[in-house]
Request: fold
Amino acid sequence: MSGAAIELNLSEVEGLARILNGVSLGPQDRIQLLTDIGVELEGQTQERLTGTEKKDPQGNPWKDIAEKTRKYYDRKFPKAKPPLYREGGLVDSVTSEVGGSWSVLEGAVAEYAAVHQFGWPEKNIAARAYLGVSSQNAADIASLTQRFIARRFT
Reply:
């Protein structure tokens, strides 16, 4: 996956180890659960990019764009929601895939995805992290996992 990506190992998400402890998922169920989590991660990231909060997954506000850039956006892209949404290319490039036996890769494949995630100091572009898992995202993933297990084992 080119662009910018994160790997979510389920053992690192608070509460998931407890939920999955003692549950035996076959390979197909495990892949389906990881796929479902990937789709959830995509939605969370897309909401972060298009929403009004403009914060990274840890809750830190994104640095605003330069006034000159804002004026350009206002003129050329009146529906833009700066700093990370202009025409939807980054949002549309968000994707996920099953990584390892208990991990999901999530990222954005737009060629400029890494610039926004990590910044580009030489061009005066601030990092505005949009990939990652907030505490609310982790709670949503835990809830999704609980519902998945309930459907499979009840």
In short: The CA atoms of residues 45 and 131 lie 6 Å apart. Residues 4-153 form one domain.
